[in-house]
Amino acid sequence: MWRVLLLVTGLLWLPPAGAWCFRQAGERYQIDPLLLQAIAIKESRLNTRAIGYNRNKAGQITSRDYGLMQINERHIPVLRRYGVLTAGNDLLTDACLNVQAGAWVLARHLQKCGPTWDCIGSYNAGFAPGNAGLRQRYARDIRTIWLYLRRQEKTG
């Protein structure tokens, strides 16, 4: 837990446009902007150009995640169909678009499993029953970051 707090402390500064992106996405999808920010901190350390590689047990790359919110490539066809993405690298070059996409993914999860911390954990670990431990650890980290951000917001 101390590592999570150390990470959050080092990443607390967000440029005004960044904070605005989280607020806008939060309003659009009825999600606390600080929760979205906590996910971005955990997923990418607020690195807009982060690319994550998901691997199977044999070490082979099975999928990639892009940008602040680490949007998995399986969402790209749907986002293109909706006209959200036009170029292949939009999720890496448009931070606000990436936050919107992450909020959309989280909103879909919340519709499926409800506003619980286990559901928040599914943002990273998915819904598979075998991933319950991963969901719980992820949710615990997100909750720790989120509570820290809330305290910081209140103390100004």
Automatic annotation (TrEMBL):
<dbReference type="InterPro" id="IPR008258">
    <property type="entry name" value="Transglycosylase_SLT_dom_1"/>
</dbReference>
<dbReference type="InterPro" id="IPR023346">
    <property type="entry name" value="Lysozyme-like_dom_sf"/>
</dbReference>
<feature type="domain" description="Transglycosylase SLT">
    <location>
        <begin position="21"/>
        <end position="144"/>
    </location>
</feature>
<dbReference type="Pfam" id="PF01464">
    <property type="entry name" value="SLT"/>
</dbReference>
<keyword id="KW-0614">Plasmid</keyword>
<protein>
    <submittedName>
        <fullName>Lytic transglycosylase domain-containing protein</fullName>
    </submittedName>
</protein>
